[in-house]
Design brief:
The two termini are 12 Å apart. The chain has one domain. The radius of gyration is 21 Å and the shape is elongated. The protein is mainly α and 238 residues long. 72% of the residues lie in helices and 5% in strands.
Length: 238
Amino acid sequence: MFYDPIYMMLAIVGMALVFIPQMLVKSTYSKYSKVRSSTGMTGAQVAESILRDNGIYDVRVEPIQGELTDHYDPSDKVIKLSENVYGTNSIAAQGVAAHEVGHAIQDSKGYLPMKMRAGFFPLVNLGQFLGPLLLMAGLGLRFFLHTGFGGLVDLLALIGIAMYGSVVLFHIITLPVELNASFRAVKALANGGYVVDDEIVGAKKVLSAAALTYVATALYALMELLYWIWVFFGRSRE
């Protein structure tokens, strides 16, 4: 149970799923961070301008330390842009900045998947921490106590599965949120004239690479959840 070669294989595949897209993001971002935009606008300027284009005046744009630490905080109404995005006029910077504005636009329009993700967020940290612990405790007690299927021991494992399932659901809901934000970003950049000609291709590549990381994370989480469901309902009774 504790040295399952199937789980080890799943872990290896999962690490590859997560690692490869992250490397792709870094390489794509690095490439287009060296390509200057013909408009000469920095990421911060693009973000502020797109916000105004959409009639949003209550969202601030501020710098934050780190690389690719960019995010939108709906509770404080602030877009945090990493220093390289905030102050440079590269295609990559403009694409990332526009993506975060896409989240602000979602927030202003009450985009349903974004509201759903916010609702699940409080459960994520708890589910990530307690879910696997309860699951392993339940399965471990069943193994060592030689209990049959059902009872309090299995209830413990079921609660763990349910808690981890909330984390998986969070990752799945995140996909339309991130993809929609990128769609809004590309549309805003093109329609507003912030990127021209082939520059839009570079912005799309940066955002597409970033989207793959969310797809990979959701897929790995789902694979792991299905594995534990199989262990609990199927394999554990063989």
